[in-house]
Amino acid sequence: MGHKQDLQDLGNRILNASRTELFLSMRFMGSALDSLSYVIDLTTRTVGTDAVSIRFNPEYLMALYLKHPRHLNRTYVHMLLHCIFRHMFAAKEHEDAELFDLCADITAEAVLDSMDYKPVNETHSDFRDSWYEKLNTEVKVLTAERLYQYFTEHPPGYDEYCKLVDEFKKDDHSFWARMQDEESDDSGDNDNEQEPPEDPNGPEQPPSPGDEQNPDEASPDPKDIDSLRVRKLPKELEEEWKKHADRVKVELEALGSEASDEYGSFLRTLRFVQKRRKGYQHFLKRFASFHEETKIDPDSFDYAFYQYGMDLYGNIPLIEENEYRETRKIRTLVIAIDTSASCQDTLVQRFLNETADILLRQESFFRHAEILVIECDDRVQEEIWLKSPEELKRYAKGFNVRGGYGTDFRPVFKRIDELQKAGRLNNLKGLMYFTDGYGTYPEKKVPWETAFVLFKDDDCDEEHVPDWAYTLYLNGD
Fold first, then answer.
1. Helix 58-67 and helix 2-25: axis angle, to 10°?
2. For the chain, which terminal residue's Cβ has fewer other Cβ atoms within 10 angstroms, N or C?
3. What own/partner pairs with CB < 8 Å and gap ≥ 24 does 180-188 have?
4. Residue 253 and residue 270: Cα distance in Å, rounded?
5. How many C-alpha atoms does 409 have within 13 Å on its Cβ side?
6. For residue range 419-465, what is the model confidence (pLDDT) as tens digits?
7. What's the pLDDT tens digit per position in 116-128?
């Protein structure tokens, strides 16, 4: 055990040295650099992460540190980018695991290659540069999900695929599959599995690599660290890394555009990843507000009657349910529809029907409510005021595209502002704008939630959607 402990200590010192060098150059990564512990793991020949620890083979780690210390720094950041972009949590959603691994590696390496920080700089091969040129032209924003879709539709030949793996692979992704196995095991019922005894002082936390350590003191037993790792399910870890990603994004934005030559495409890619594609049902809840509604509420009662009964009879309360209950529903919704020729009747009808179905299915609308549909292209063409999801479905049946001009999103926002100043749309919580994404966007954030609903991934412009707006997608299914 003593020899293994010595290897663990040596690995800690090597990775701490790399982490310190990275922190001095890339302070915006501080929260992420502080988030991974170090664990010796002889099941891997190289190094990898499970979003809790960097798990390393000591022989590989020492050889890499002695021969290519800059390559070790780069591998360290490569693994952090997997965590920040949450690749290990998205892997299970893709059928071809090996292809997704490649796409995740290309994403991380593309960000690293765009950076200008000495600890991670490496010379690019011509093969790599040629693929960057191709992918930046055809995919534009290099995220793992978009690359996966691209390679699924345009699969490279076997030899080319192997070259891509050799070029971009830096770490061991086998720990990602184990994370999903742990989630499946913990979600199932296992009557024979005994729960570990609870520590009265609370669960112990994995050591932070940033903590000062005395080399003469014994490091934590790797087995103990490993047992701590499985206490957190992937869903909990993903939430933690979402927070780290938010912190990194704020730090990068604070650096300003003048530092963009240094951090490269990191902020752009991170912003795109942070724009998670949300379903209609999830997003429409953001438009809801609390109001009283005439309806018996069995979960509440009038305290005056209760107290009167206790005072009159001594021990017999009078229970009278409230006739009003506070509910969270949508009272006002604005739907803008780009009627330019790039949008199709059937797609718009599907979008409207889907929205109406969700509102009906979830009982999300108050009885007295309003839906404003604005047909527009480079100007507001028509306003249709509706009072219920049923009327929205009837409107969808007769909708047809009749525009042919360009798209300017600003007139819709200006019109909503005018209506609010005139006393209309006072309860507006949000706007859903169905479009292909091509057009002129407002420069300033508006006081209501806004979602641009794009109908295709390959033919829409999602890069220019403002950061303060959401991006929703209407796909083939």
1. 40
2. C
3. 180/91, 180/92, 180/234, 182/230, 182/233, 182/234, 183/233, 183/234, 183/235, 186/233
4. 11
5. 25
6. 999 988 887 878 989 887 888 899 888 888 888 888 655 456 666 78
7. 999 999 888 999 9
